[in-house]
Design goal:
Shape: globular
Keywords: Transferase
Strand content: 5-15%
Protein name: Sulfotransferase domain-containing protein
Order of helices and strands: EEHHEHHHHEHEHHHEHHHHHHHH
Family: Belongs to the sulfotransferase 1 family.
Largest sheet: 4 strands, parallel
Distance between the termini: 34 Å
Helix content: 40-55%
Bound molecules: adenosine-3'-5'-diphosphate
Radius of gyration: 18 Å
Pfam families: Sulfotransfer_1
GO molecular function: sulfotransferase activity
Length: 302
């Protein structure tokens, strides 16, 4: 069992994050003081907000639409996850070192909130792509992820209760998003929504191209949008985490041949409507009516 702790920095309890204790022991400090480069590309999200989808989009745009490499090298190798070394089994044993030592330009994925990111992020100012998603779809997706990827045995009701109480890993979600929303207009930050990618991927691809200083023809963009479609990502073994899921199941003594879970699961906006009970929905309504959101003048897209 993983032990979780509530992390704050400099006794400032107004900002906290729930993380495995092991993260504090092995990652917290080395991430805070890591060297950041101007040509790094970071994708930062609260988990389940469309991280993987955005990573493939960004990687392809930055790499001259290199389908050959994309179809042959796992996304987790091209765009590795930085924290949780040895906790999220299936990733390189020391994922921090793996990210740190990647040839430049480095592509780095993290779910850390603003206050736990490296100090140099705010002075060196690499390009950061942040993706937000509404908390109801995120919580449902996070529940399925916990159940299938981490062997969570609680009910959906238990999970939603813990989520709205900000007890799940990387919680609190509201603060995670609003702290980035406050700095969204910085020139090195691109703030995207899962819901916009779903409704008009072509437009979001163009936004990302513009941000990354890349130019492709409409024909190339159409092809990229097809490559990034739900069906294509779901069936793409380099992206859909089949490999990681198998390793995670084996590590926790479960039989991977019994797996019925797709990491690229439903990919819907509003899918929560079919999955949440009235009581769970109401709990999340309260969660969404958070004073911090008013303060940041932020509204979720449902
Ligand atoms: P669901 O569980 O709601 O289906 P992350 O990469 O941050 O863990 O996010 C995973 C979520 O993004 C999953 O949501 C997954 O289905 C969704 N997703 C991934 N690729 C997608 C795509 N091409 N179109 C729509 N949703 C996608």
């Amino acid at each position: 069992m993983t032990d979780f702790v509530k992390i704050s920095i400099n006794d400032d309890q107004s900002q906290f994050c729930i993380m495995p204790k092991k993260f504090v022991d092995q990652d917290l400090e080395r991430i805070k003081y890591m060297e950041v480069f101007e040509d790094d590309i970071w994708v930062v999200t609260y988990p389940k907000c469309g991280t993987t989808w955005a990573m493939e989009m960004i990687w392809m745009i930055c790499n001259n639409l290199d389908y050959e490499t994309s179809m042959n090298v796992n996304l987790e190798d091209r765009f590795p996850f930085m924290e949780l070394s040895g906790i999220a089994t299936g990733f390189p044993t020391d994922s921090f070192e793996f990210c740190k030592n990647k040839p430049r330009p480095r592509y780095i994925k993290t779910h850390l909130p603003v206050f736990l990111l490296p100090d140099q992020m705010w002075t060196v100012k690499p390009k950061i792509i942040y993706v937000a998603r509404n908390p109801k779809d995120t919580a449902v997706s996070w529940f399925h992820h916990h159940r299938h990827m981490h062997g969570y045995e609680g009910t959906k009701e238990d999970f939603i209760e813990a989520f709205v109480k900000d007890l799940m890993m990387y919680s609190p979600m509201n603060e995670h998003i609003t702290e980035f929303w406050k700095i969204r207009n910085e020139p090195n930050i691109l703030f995207l929504f899962f819901e916009d990618m779903k409704r008009n991927l072509d437009q979001e691809v163009k936004k990302a191209m513009n941000f990354l200083g890349k130019n492709y023809s409409q024909e190339e963009i159409d092809k990229l949008c097809k490559h990034l479609s739900f069906e294509s990502i779901r069936d793409n073994k380099m992206i859909n985490k089949e490999v990681e899921l198998k390793k995670l199941m084996e590590a926790s003594g479960r039989d991977p041949s019994l797996n019925e879970f797709n990491f690229v699961r439903k990919g819907q906006v509003g899918g929560y409507k079919k999955e949440l009970s009235v009581a769970e929905n109401e709990k999340l309504d309260e969660y969404v009516e958070c004073p911090k959101l008013d303060e940041a003048q932020f509204e979720y897209k449902f």
